[in-house]
Each structure stands twice: as structure tokens, then as C-alpha cells.
């Protein structure tokens, strides 16, 4: 689980191919699922916050392969990231009743 980015407005699958060199063996040969696409600082804030919220929902360090928090407690933008994610999740929930779905 993680955040991936690439300069410019790229398709999500292209960003994943770039990040992993088109080698998805560590994921059973399939690319990871994209759960959010966004652009600009707002998009980054939302993506990083969603990454942290998903990490927490999966059980943190015990429930994931991560070796550290995606957005640690000392990250100066942590509050911004989590607020952006919570706003996105609230809007998603109001719009389709599912919460946390793709954008």
C-alpha cells in the first residue's frame, strides 16, 4: 500500500508502471488497485491522507507489510493530509453511500 506520483497528469496505471518498472511480481503479477486519482496539492493531500487512513483501517504495522506509518505523527502536513482524506471520504459517503470508493 502506498502513494505513487509522477510529473504531469498521467493515467494512474502509467504511474504504477513507472513506479514499479512494470514489474508487479511482488503483487502476484498484477498491479496494485488504484483507489484514488488526484492532481495538484489538493490531490496529493487527499492521496496521502487516504493512504494513512487505509493503513490504520488495515491494522497499522501489524496488519500491513509497511515498515512505518505512511504519514507519521511528526509529519508537518499530517493534519492537512488527514483532513483532506476525511473530507473526501465524507463527500464520497454522502454521494454514493459506500464511502472510500474510487473517484
What does this structure look like?
With 103 residues, the chain is mostly helical. The chain has four helices and no strands. It starts with 11 loop residues before the first helix and ends in a 7-residue tail after the last helix. Residues 57-77 are annotated as: Disordered. Residues 65-77 have a biased composition (Polar residues).
Describe the secondary structure blueprint for this structure.
Layout: H1 12-19, H2 40-57, H3 60-63, H4 78-96
Report the count of strand segments: 0
**Given the structure, what is the number of helices?**
4
Series of secondary-structure elements, N-terminal to C-terminal: HHHH
Secondary-structure-derived class: mainly alpha
Radius of gyration: 14 Å
The mean pLDDT is 83
Strand residue percentage = under 5%
State the distance separating the first and last CA atoms: 17 Å
Give a summary of the structure in a few sentences:
Residues 57-77 are annotated as: Disordered. The two termini are 17 Å apart.
Amino acid at each position: 500500500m502506498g502513494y505513487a506520483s509522477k510529473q504531469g497528469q498521467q493515467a494512474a496505471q502509467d504511474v504504477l508502471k513507472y513506479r514499479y518498472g512494470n514489474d508487479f511480481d511482488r503483487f502476484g503479477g498484477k498491479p496494485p488497485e488504484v483507489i484514488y486519482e488526484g492532481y495538484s496539492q489538493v490531490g496529493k493531500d487527499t492521496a496521502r491522507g487516504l493512504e494513512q487512513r487505509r493503513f490504520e483501517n488495515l491494522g497499522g504495522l501489524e496488519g500491513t507489510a509497511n515498515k512505518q506509518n505512511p504519514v507519521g505523527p511528526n509529519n508537518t502536513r499530517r493534519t492537512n493530509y488527514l483532513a483532506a482524506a476525511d473530507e473526501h471520504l465524507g463527500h464520497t459517503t454522502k454521494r454514493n453511500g459506500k464511502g472510500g470508493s474510487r473517484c
